[in-house]
Design brief:
It comes from Secundilactobacillus folii. This protein is of the alpha/beta class. About 35% of the residues lie in helices and about 25% in strands. The protein has seven helices and nine strands. The strands form two sheets. A seven-stranded mixed beta sheet has the order 3-2-4-1-5-8-9.
Amino acid sequence: MTMDIRLARIDSRLLHGQVATVWTKTVTPNRILVVSDKVAKDNLRKSLITQAAPPGVKANVITIKKMLAIYTDPRFDVFKTLLLTENAQDMAALVKGGIDLSKIGINVGSLAYQDGMATLTDAVAVDQTEAKALRYLASDAGLKVTIQKVPGDRQIDVLPLLDKNQL
């Protein structure tokens, strides 16, 4: 067996109000795993993320390497996981490393705008690197990659938006 991943979400804000309340009610995880080499080295951010977990759900911040190691470890089969990455590159690294998201696809919540980025939706902006990683996930890995802030919103396929913006 492998870990039960209920939602794989890319969100530059990581664990915030919408994730802690609305998404956890929808996917009923018992564990939130924030996977980021950068955040795992930042004790302040790690502390804030673990404190933001809703009641009854434990949050951990781990590296990509650690996630790949525990994914198939039977000791973690009890995890009903809400998986969060800060960017598409980290999610792509997980998929390349063997994390199977074919049954659930990937949810993109929010990617903050910075100068030089293309705006795909009101909540998602990408540069060339982010676009390349999203295209890998949707095309090369064959995963359903959709933008959706909250469960009640319509899912928007990311590929046509990348094509429209010539990314």
